[in-house]
From TrEMBL:
Pfam annotation, one family: 7tm_2
GO process terms (BP): adenylate cyclase-activating G protein-coupled receptor signaling pathway
UniProt-listed InterPro entries: GPCR_2_secretin-like
Signal peptide: 1-23
Alphabetical keyword list: Membrane, Signal, Transmembrane, Transmembrane helix
PANTHER family: ADHESION G-PROTEIN COUPLED RECEPTOR (PTHR12011), G-PROTEIN COUPLED RECEPTORS FAMILY 2 PROFILE 2 DOMAIN-CONTAINING PROTEIN (PTHR12011:SF471)
Protein name, UniProt field: Uncharacterized protein
GO terms under cellular component: plasma membrane
Membrane-traversing stretches: 49-68, 89-107, 127-144, 173-192
Record membrane topology: Multi-pass membrane protein
Organism: Plectus sambesii
Compartments (UniProt record): Membrane
């Protein structure tokens, strides 16, 4: 549930404030376009970038935790319940992504944006500060999801067959969801950064498949 909620919130923010012009109503207009929506300040725009950095970090973290949970349930590690417990699981998913976001915001807050994006300046170090943690989370999540269904594991006698079946099915779906989600995030970021209509279209297609 955490990955869905964080992604929904991120999409709401993107729809409203992905560029300095609220609603992005003039994204493809020149500087003389009339009736443009309200513009936000640079610091407000950077605040939006920090929020998006955090929300997508939470999204990918919960995808990893789901992969870990599915693996532990489908093997002998856990008895059908979450490996860390629901409360700890939520705490990890919410708090851990704040670490790279905080470090980036403290050291490179000014370079989060440029004149056409409030998401991420892909020409600055901020891009790598977002890309590398996301990749380091998604790759192990994919490995865990693949490992969950690779063979017949010894069953924990206390585990429930329906729980193992659900974990297996979820892990198969994650093999599609994780790369699609990562690709949609990256393409969407590039679309806003470059104000590229073809990338916007590609992002829409990826999100349609993902949805």
């Amino acid at each position: 549930m955490g990955e869905e909620i964080s992604l929904l919130l991120a999409h709401i923010v993107i729809l409203c404030a992905r560029t300095p012009t609220l609603g992005d109503g003039a994204a493809f207009c020149d500087e003389n376009a009339t009736n443009n929506p309200i513009k936000i300040s640079d610091d407000q725009c950077r605040g939006v970038a920090v929020i998006l950095h955090y929300l997508f970090g939470v999204h990918f973290s919960f995808l990893f935790l789901e992969g870990l949970n599915n693996y532990s349930i489908n093997t002998f590690i856990a008895n059908g319940t979450s490996l860390t417990g629901r409360f700890k699981n939520i705490l990890i998913g919410i708090c851990v992504p704040a670490i790279p976001v905080l470090l980036t915001a403290l050291t490179n807050f000014k370079t989060y944006i440029h004149e056409s994006t409030c998401w991420c300046n892909m020409n600055a170090v901020n891009f790598y500060a977002e890309l590398l943690p996301a990749a380091l989370i998604c790759v192990p999540a994919m490995v865990l999801s693949e490992a969950t269904g690779m063979g017949k594991y010894k069953e924990n006698p206390k585990s429930l067959p329906e729980k193992r079946s659900s974990a297996y099915t979820s892990s198969r779906g994650a093999l599609v969801v994780i790369p699609l989600s990562f690709a949609a995030w990256l393409v969407g970021m590039a679309a806003v950064d470059r104000t590229d209509l073809s990338l916007y279209s590609a992002c829409s297609i990826l999100n349609t498949i993902l949805g």
